[in-house]
Amino acid sequence: MSFCPPGNLKSSSMQDDIKSKKKLLLATIENIDQEGRGVSHIDGKAIFVEGALQGELVECESYVRKPSYEIAFTHRVIRQSNLRVKPKCDHFNRCGGCSMQHFEFQAQIAAKQRVFENTLSRIGKVKSELILTPLAGPSWRYRYKGRLRVKFVVKKNKALVGFNEKRTHLIADISSCEILPQNLSDILPPLQDLITQLSIKDKIPQIEFAADQKYLVLALRILEKLDLSDEVLLNAFSSQYSVQFWTQSKGPETVKPLSKKDDVKLSYTLKEFGLKFSFMPYDFTQINPFINQVLVRRAMSLLKPSKDERIFDFFCGLGNFTLPIAISGAKVTGIEGSASLIERAKQCRDENHLNDFVEYQCINLFEIHKEILLKLGHANKWLIDPPRDGAFELVQLIDEEINPSVIVYVSCNPATLARDAQILVNEKGYKLDKAGIVNMFPHTSHVESIALFVKTAS
């Protein structure tokens, strides 16, 4: 991407010239959308421009054209925003793993806050009584769990390991990554060389990674069996770079360590609560352990659990919120749809000696009905932490019999939170008391949030 200082431009004539010579558009960026793209309007048509910031004048090229909108990428910045910064990653303009490194860090957070508030208003028709201060943590080296794509490219005689390129399904050829743990970023080039040497180099589509402060586990998805020479190469690499290899040949039940020395258990801690959570590399757990510390603290400050209360933790996972609730002396029931996660959650409960305060139930919360919920008994406070689909089925069940006074809702998708907030506020008699964002994924457009709903007097 090249940059040009502001000049005295006649927009209409320049627009015509650009269209005729390069098929480019001249766009003045009005604001930022939920995907972190600049928004412009040309001849009444919305143009979403990747890599552009509010207030900028850019040349852009459309790669998606629809009757009512187009999606474009920035070709040249003519008038630059003072919030534009040089991306830290050398691969930013090619790799699609991040979309906002060109945006000053605090301005990224402010933009996400605006997107969150606008989504609540536009989709949910609700407004929070109080907007909470955004929660933020380290901006680099934060992603401790995720998936890397793998592709052996015959023409290059090289295995690529990384994320998709921007605007394509190809894998970006990268040698480092600023959001991954340092020990994983450092081994990307030798990891590519290793896979290139394997007999099944073209039968490994992805690598799941999971890390803590002690171990780095790489789980290879293999479509054919490793031979003895492959295992020798993987074991040598493991010893040299202090990583543990696991393999997955079919479904999740086939995930296993390559050898006995690779059979490690990972963990993270919530120091403020004196809790430790052990997990396996394939478990669903915290991607950003740093911001999770402050997220749990905020959730507890909103929920205010106290001794002898009964509290439900829906979509509880490993018990990330369940166990901190129990530390207060409250009786808490964690509900989760995955049987394997429930078993791991029980182990974490037992290891933290909270058996007297915590019970777990395995229930599919996307198919739950009233009779099942009533069998759990009554809890005056709920914590809800659903996946991207939200908790629509659950909040629909609230009525005079099922009527918590307080709901803390942790969301990874502003749109489904807004949808569920509309139900809670406009149908179920709750007030959206407080809400704010959590910058769980810096330099991406992803918005995590937390909201407090309080039952209003009838």
How would you describe this structure to a colleague?
The protein is globular. By secondary structure, it is α/β, with parallel strands linked by helices. Strands 8-22-23-21-20-17-18-19 form an 8-stranded mixed β-sheet, with helices on both faces. It starts with a strand and ends with a strand. It has helices spanning 11-22, 105-124, 182-186, 188-197, 228-241, 289-303, 322-327, 339-351, 370-375, 392-396, 414-426, and strands at 2-3, 25-28, 31-32, 38-42, 45-50, 57-65, 69-79, 130-131, 145-153, 158-162, 206-211, 216-221, 244-248, 256-257, 266-270, 275-279, 310-314, 331-336, 358-362, 381-384, 406-411, 430-438, 448-455. The protein has 3 domains: 2-79, OB fold (Dihydrolipoamide Acetyltransferase, E2P) (Beta Barrel); 109-138 and 288-455, Rossmann fold (3-Layer(aba) Sandwich); 145-265, Beta Barrel (OB fold (Dihydrolipoamide Acetyltransferase, E2P)), CATH 2.40.50. The longest helix is centred in the first third of the chain and has 20 residues, at 105-124. Helix 2 (105-124) packs across helix 11 (414-426). A hairpin with a 4-residue loop joins strand 15 (266-270) and strand 16 (275-279). 41% of the residues are buried. 26% of the residues lie in helices and 28% in strands.
